[in-house]
Amino acid sequence: xxxxxxxxxxxxxxxxxxxxxxxxxxxxxxxxxxxxxxxxxxxxxxxxxxxxxxxxxxxxxxxxxxxxxxxxxxxxxxxxxxxxxxxxxxxxxxxxxxxxxxxxxxxxxxxxxxxxxxxxxxxxxxxxxxxxxxxxxxxxxxxxxxxxxxxxxxxxxxxxxxxxxxxxxxxxxxxxxxxxxxxxxxxxxxxxxxxxxxxxxxxxxxxxxxxxxxxxxxxxxx
Length: 222
Known about the structure:
By secondary structure, the chain is mainly alpha-helical. The protein has helices spanning 3-28, 54-58, 69-84, 96-115, 118-145, 169-221; strands at residues 33-36, 45-46, 50-51, 63-66, 150-153, 164-167.
């Protein structure tokens, strides 16, 4: 009878690992970013002076197609896994803040993917940078150090019972898995921050260049 709870725990952990592995494979097959640069880029043409053609003023110098949908998928999957993963030492109240933060990232990434607003991309960058640094440098090493394959009861300062330890491979393997998960998602969020920051900078520079070109075109017409 004592082996039944342990077998159910191992079965749940196996299903949990397979679910996360399949989700990572599905998300990794989606492109994170696709930037198509316009081969007809021209700032100005010099023909009897500085002249900017009408085609260059109307068409942007840099055409971008950035997809933040993988960020949405990873954030949803990460939130679900952090909520349902088996670890009796971490109560559900301690999991709520990270789940809500992942949901916020989902909404911002979805908005950035729909509107391509540079300000929203900047907000996504500011949200994913601290998340990536926390996952890589705090949570990943912390769960490695806290990985323990035993569950002990008694033996405390105020306890009259002797310390009794039993093997708990679910807790040990689960925390090692969370460490790897934190490292992978941290690297993913770090790349997301770089991509969103690059999109914000290039959009700003493209807008400034377009305004300058329009000013120069109006000056030449006069």
